[in-house]
Structures
1.
Amino acid sequence: MSSEKTQSGIEMTTGSGGEPQQRGGEPLTTNHGVPIPDNQNSLKSGERGPTLLEDFVLREKIFHFDHERIPERIVHARGTGAHGYFECTDPIPELTMAQPFQKKGMKVPVFVRFSTVAGSKGSKDTPRDVRGFAVKFYTEDGNWDLVGNNIPVFFIQDAMKFPDLIHSVKPESDRGFPQAASAHDTFWDFISLSPESMHMMMWLMSDRAIPRSFRMMDGFGVHTFRFVNASGEATFVKFHWRAKLRAQSVLWDEAVKISGADPDYNRRDLFEAITMGDCPEWELGVQVFDEDWAAEQPYDVLDATKLVPEEDIPLRIVGRMVLDRYPDNFFAETEQVAFLPSNVIPGIDFTEDPLLQGRLFSYLDTQKSRLGTTNFHQIPVNAPKCPMHNFQRDGMMQTYVHTGRANYEPNSLYKAGEETGPRPADHHFATYPDAEDHGPKRRLRAETFADHYSQARQFYRSQTPPEQDHIVAAITFELSKVDLDHVRVQALSHLRNVDEDMAARIAKGIGIDLPDAATPAKAPFDAQISDALSIHKTATDEPMGRMVGVLVTDGTEDAQVEAIRSAAEAAGVRVQIVAEKRGGVTLESGTHLMADGQLAGTPSVMFDAVAILPSEEGAKDLAKLAPAKDFAADAFAHLKAIVVSAPAKALLEAVDAEPDDFVFMAEDDPAACVEHAHERLWSREAMVNPAP
Ligand code: HDE
């Protein structure tokens, strides 16, 4: 923000985009700069008389308010964003001339938006859903948008099917529900009539679809792109964002309860982490391969329902991304940011992936309907940070004041110095001249796209047993929400081709007979197990970035709280104090401890691990409170590490929580809740919530 005097001496206060800022204290004006005396009362004829039409102050205020909302994104409506930077750690000029990858240590500013897909803007953060992971790099060669997801494959192979896919998952058209949910008839109907979706469905029914935090989520460019180097040589490339805190998820029962306790769970987490200086970070890995290698694979690299296993082409880490600044204004930045997969820069090019090709049109098109003008690129968050020149002019909401006479090319006026003209360029985006003869025009699906089950099977079989249990439980839950029998049967007929045992467990869970298997377009094969596909097998062994909840009462021992706090500080773990009243408690020593959350509004689902530290008297009080019992029961059912003071054992007993390896005595090991904050005791799950 800056303050400057105009020639006439008027002081202008502007933000980074040149927009007016309200700092408090300045006289209020209309949008046209007229100072106004009163922003609270409309202009009336007499003290109790009618409001006058001439009140332009009132009319302008209401007029602007009436038009504050813009259409929400047709998909990915609910999201949150942040500014940051990408830093090159391993330059790859031999592979690409893309500017972010040229020099070690070179930093490029980025804006990132994370989102859910199906829900409306006002829905919750924790539905079972894919998460968007869209990154805008503001490079010296223009904006490059890597518009990805937290799942490396997609439901469909051809953009032609996208409107149908989205119609099927959105609230059903006759009744307008369910909101932000895939567990309903129309979605499963579409899915089970589109077997190409089976691989993506395995991911969607896995824990990947209920991330603990955006900070603990990997991202993927999904499509195969092309890298092009300065000599014009191309290779195929796939992009992966790998979270520094590694991927972690919540349990389904937690997700359901979090959506009630804090529908903004993921958004708040990102905001708090960044504003507290705990800046989230990802590595960017690339998988690079050539056309010959691609031609030998049992799948087509142009098919977005397939991934390239990391065991076959390991990730080469080329940089890191840090998000270090939350937007100043949610609407101006996060809501108005417009990502375009068609935004590529010299060194990055598309492939013939038919899903990607459709996206190249859709995103540009949708911004016009969402942001209302072809000039959406002038909105500060969308504007390139490098020089930009062309002869496109005018249009709604034109904010540039183009000067000079020539608004066309070729022109000779430029030479006369009246117009700057296009930037002289020996460095520019040149489409990779794919020389392949693609044959006659036809509407069809390539034969090489026909195997719908092998990678779905590979994903399922690469999971640990608890992860497989979660997939079985998720599909059982979803299909139990499906009312139409034939849809369940259709779905199960495909699931049999993925894994017989999984399908049998789901059928048992629903309580129906296993139908015949669907006839595959191409017989699946057993691909090699890929550990990289499992969250559990690639999990972190550090609790950094997690949050511990400490439930206290009057008389709680100071030393126990202190031990947790100091262990947490050393480990980069956050601690929140929870008490019956927000005003806090008086500890054993007589010290007052303020609470960060009121017990009734801060259930244990908000934390990765908990400590329940009541005094003798406090434990008796807690035993009478339903939220206290839920706090303990849920922490136990959600397989978390629990530290308890001796009196709190009674609370555990009251909720039938049998102490096990993840229940620790505060007298012995108060910091255990910090040490195990990134872990769950999976063996407890069979006891408390067995999968079918
Ligand atoms: Fe999108 N998608 N998409 N999508 N998508 C949109 O563009 C679309 C697909 C993704 O935070 C829309 O600006 C088509 C794959 C993200 O602003 C829209 C197809 C992947 C975001 C659109 C796909 C994505 C969007 C709606 C199939 C992962 C949010 C608003 C051909 C690689 C971006 C907008 C943000 C948003 C179309 C498939 C990711 C309608 C036609 C595959 C992260 O244009």
2.
Amino acid sequence: PLTTGIVGLPNVGKSTLFNAITQAGAESANYPFCTIDPNVGVVEVPDERLQVLADMVNPNRIVPTAFEFVDIAGLVKGASRGEGLGNKFLSHIREVDAIAHVVRCFEDENITHVAGQVDPISDIETINLELILADLETVEKRLERTKKNLKSGEKKFQLEYEVVERIQKALESEKPARSVELDEDERSLIKDLHLLTMKPVLYVANVSEDDVSNFDQNPYVQKVKEYANHEGAEVIVISAKVESEIAELEGEDKQLFLQELGLNQSGLDRLIQAAYKLLGLITYFTAGVQEVRAWTIKKGTKAPQAAGVIHSDFEWGFIRAEVVGYEDLVASGSMNQAKEKGLLRLEGKDYVVKDGDVMHFRFNV
Ligand code: GDP
């Protein structure tokens, strides 16, 4: 499964946030594909559509879909030179599919800031520079190797050299690899480099508990937003401390507490949804009397592979899928009415599943 790594300098609130994630999170036991590891938190993806579907079919249970956050603590300045536990942390980042970069936007004189003062932009740049330096090393090694291969005269190596060199130039001017525009072929040439700065990023601005309701007043948040805007990244503003309090509550208590804070959704829920999107994940549903359930697939997944997420038999024995779009189903009021209106489609093995599709698979066993 795809994972999002939580990174950031020490004392910015990563552990507090990660604790909120595990506290609010799902038991891995309910999601067999999830890892059982103290550094991994399983989160359920909040999705209002589940309840709407459930109201239609009255199932025995509702099962949201889930994915994982990984806590990558301990990244410090100098990591790319092996300082702290540098290389180890960088290798952990290499394994994740997206990065949630936590930055401190709260003042608290009792909590030391590693650089002596709260300065989110400098924090972001410190971490990003470590990732860039690590990538630069990877890229330089590859260039040397490709240079040797160039002698073979194969066109593939020529192209590879050119692409890697473009990335090197970007890194040298302290820009992440993801800022380099690449087409699909070029991308596949450098995929095996597993560059850290190629991974999609979102920023998590951690504000003081006093700021949760009107964080737009917080000047640090403004700066982070400007910075992120520049690279087309999203910013999620939260108070990790408040999130850890919300995470202890459930149902009505949680709603009441959120109301008191003037929020309609917890910051954690916003973070979960943003990370899900960042990973390029979408949701399809199955809706039966047993259960109404959400399933995660990567955008672009075809029907048989989407069925395979439920069970490998569904993929191998795939015949067809009955599909109705969520909006169509809701507008029709029921599965039968959707069928009468001709909104229930039969789709074959080349059908690309869309977010919100309600699916029923036909398969051979
Ligand atoms: P990490 O080193 O990034 O994992 O940071 P921690 O989560 O351990 O947080 C460092 C310190 O900052 C702890 O004492 C937290 O209680 C405190 N902290 C985290 N978030 C907030 C916040 O939103 N407001 C305040 N005042 N303190 C916070």
